[in-house]
Specification:
Length: about 190
């Protein structure tokens, strides 16, 4: 029975090693990545360290060593330059990435992690997470502060007009509305 199986396996191996002209142009790696479910996207992105990994890989756009990646993230987390990091600070991040974060990201093909070589690169599914990474950057925008400032100013002017010149309330209200319209127009024209 095993003698019948061996020739079949050898024949199959021989066929895949020497492609025929009909199958030569077909590449199996050219298939598009399967869309990730929102649960998987949020599972990957729920940890800040994993978001930092993606941002770093997007900025470098090449394969990086795990040591360089761990050093970069340790510097951010400890709020100090990479040259000022202790070996313990580097090691803590390195171990966390190696044991937990990078394998999880590799399982979803967001990154390509080779633990034996210690290399990390963007995977086929990385682009699916970019819109969510951009949304994280939008939290640093100053626009909420501008709207809050204008609201505070408008309320102060309303209070002053109510006490000092009640007949000017409609003018203050109109100026406040014009201010909001201008602020909104500028905000949306920049984005």
């Amino acid at each position: 029975m095993s003698s019948q199986t061996a020739p079949t396996d050898t024949a199959q191996t021989h066929r895949t090693e020497t492609p025929t002209p009909e199958t030569a142009p077909v590449e199996t790696d050219a298939q598009p990545a399967e869309p990730l479910s929102l649960d998987l996207v949020f599972e990957v992105l729920k940890n800040e360290r994993r978001r930092r990994v993606l941002k770093y890989l997007c900025e470098t756009d090449e394969t990086v060593s795990l040591s360089d990646l761990a050093e970069h993230i340790a510097a951010i987390e400890n709020d100090k330059p990479e040259t000022a990091l202790s070996s313990q600070e580097r090691k803590r991040v390195y171990v966390g990435l190696y044991q937990c974060h990078l394998p999880k990201m590799d399982d979803t093909d967001v990154i390509e992690f080779d633990g034996n070589r210690g290399t990390v690169a963007l995977g086929d599914n990385a682009e699916q997470l970019y819109p969510f990474l951009d949304a994280d950057d939008e939290q640093d925008q100053p626009w909420p502060k501008y709207y809050l400032g204008h609201t505070t100013l408008s309320l102060a002017l309303f209070a002053a007009a109510l006490v000092a010149v009640p007949s000017a309330l409609s003018v203050v209200f109109g100026l406040s509305l014009v201010g909001f319209v201008l602020l909104g127009t500028v905000h949306h024209s920049i984005e």
